[in-house]
Design a protein that fits this description.
Length: about 90
């Protein structure tokens, strides 16, 4: 286990049919949803549900989202998203 594993969370996901477009590839809108799911898993890992943070009025908006597409993703492909908190405040 690396130090990176101590401060990050990996989210594993298998692409569903509903996440694909008419050509059978993942629609770009899904990426932000996967990031959100990974972020929620991150907070659960450290014992805090994201919904509890919202109840405390800690709103964590995603201010910037950068995505690099190296290849196409399609139905039933397995993906992995890694999330880390780099700044709080």
């Amino acid at each position: 286990m690396s130090r990176w594993d101590d401060v990050s969370e990996r989210y594993e996901h298998r692409v569903t049919f509903s996440e694909t477009d008419g050509l059978g590839f993942v629609h770009h809108r899904c990426v932000a949803v996967w990031f959100e799911q990974a972020r929620e898993n991150f907070f659960r890992r450290f014992g805090v549900a994201a919904v509890e943070l919202y109840r405390r009025r800690w709103f964590m908006a995603i201010r910037q989202l950068n995505v690099r597409y190296d290849s196409f993703l399609a139905y039933d492909d397995q993906i992995s998203v890694r999330v880390a908190l780099t700044k709080l405040g």
